Amino acid sequence: MKKGLTILLTLLLVLAMSSVAFAAKGKIGVAMPTQSLQRWNQDGANMKAQLEAVGYTVDLQYANNNVATQISQLENMILGGVDVLVIASIDGSALGTVLETAKLEGIPVIAYDRLIMETDAVTYYATFDNYMVGTIQGTYIRDALKLDTREEPAYMEFFGGSPDDNNARYFFGGAWDVIEPYIKSGKVIVPSGQTAFEQIATMNWDSANAQARMDNLIAAHYSAGQRLDAVLCSNDSTALGVTNSLKGAGFEKDNFPYITGQDCDIANVKNILAGYQSMSIFKDTRTLAAQVVKMVEAIMSGEEPEINNTTDYHNGVRIIPTYLCEPVFADINNYKELLIDSGYYTPDQLGL
Ligand code: BGC
After folding, report:
1. What is the architecture, at CATH level 2, of domain 130-282?
2. What's the pLDDT score for residue 1?
3. Which pLDDT does position 8 carry in this prediction?
4. Which end of the chain is more exposed for a tag (fewer CB within 10 A), N or C?
5. Which CATH class is domain 2-122+284-326?
């Protein structure tokens, strides 16, 4: 009986000590932009699971793409005593004031995927190499259209991302740098003439906005059966809008343009399998989350996190030390290995 009591007391002591150790690891605030796009649900879920697995408490919030909501969520996280903030911003330039408070409270801020602009309260940035995303998309189109060897010109349009997302210009810039020489030499023609970022941007990365712009382009330039060989779309939500518009206008599989994307959203991978989209950049959200968790761990133990870029990401105030993960592309030839064999999706999710 006495022995039993001793064991019980020891057990209780161990439990109490481990819960102290658990609580002592800290609380991390994770602010995500929206649940309406598949990738952010995965990012949020991966961050939460991976942080909890190493002993942190997590306050995960989604802001429905509403800047004011995100700001008030951040205020609550600060009030709630978080030790580190991880933020995927909606409008990269709108968080200066709230992050000033974080800075005063000594809370380090990691910009997640999207750089937070115009504030010195950002400590680190982790993302996939945004410029490289664009060059991979541009190169894919260049090779698909055989721009180096073809005789006749190819016809093409561009769809970029949201102007309030710092990434959007990097994506477009990377693609543009690959394609522009062919526009100059006359190998690529853009019938709409819309090639400036402001003209091709898609507010909120919204599929409906992309679809409406493609509807307009078709009405103005392609309604008499003119050829369209490629539409460079910066991500999957824009690609989806463009694809829907083209289908609605009667483009068939055999005259469907090459379409790029990014995120490997399920709907878009299904379109790749069905022959309506050519590729999508695969940014394994598990990898980015793992890298950010390593950053949090380093910060919390007073060490320097791993950084591999200290030159490219100036946020308007200073260069933010950055870790860049490497993006790759998925298409009909490699999707199985990248997306299924890696455990990212089950065949069932892709309707296979
Ligand atoms: C992300 C992309 C995503 C887009 C729309 C960008 O900041 O880097 O992966 O497609 O936002 O959510």
Report:
1. 3-Layer(aba) Sandwich (3.40)
2. 46
3. 54
4. N
5. alpha beta
Closest by Cα among 328, 334, 341 to 128: 328
Q: For the residues of 288-325, what is the DSSP string, one character each?
A: HHHHHHHHHHHHHTT-PPP--BSSS-B-SSSBPPEEEE
CA 22 to CA 18: how far, in whole Å? 6
**Domain residue limits, the chain:** 2-122+284-326, 130-282
Looking up tokens 């990377």 gives 174
What is the position in ligand 1's atom list of the atom closest to the CA of 130? 8
Please tell me the distance from the alpha carbon of residue 26 to that of residue 28, in angstroms, as a whole number.
7
For ligand 1, the distance from its centroid to the CA atom of residue 196, given in whole angstroms, is 20
Per-residue burial over 2-18, b if 16 or more Cβ lie within 10 Å, else e, is eeeeeeeeeeeeeeeee
Ligand 1, atom nearest to 171 Cα: 8
Say yes or no: do domains 2-122+284-326 and 130-282 share a fold. yes
Enumerate residue ranges in the chain where pLDDT < 70.
1-24
User: pTM for this one?
Assistant: 0.91
C-alpha dihedral sign at 63, 86, 284, 286? negative
Task: State the distance from the centre of ligand 1 to the C-alpha of 134, rounded, in angstroms.
Answer: 12
What's the pLDDT at 339? 98
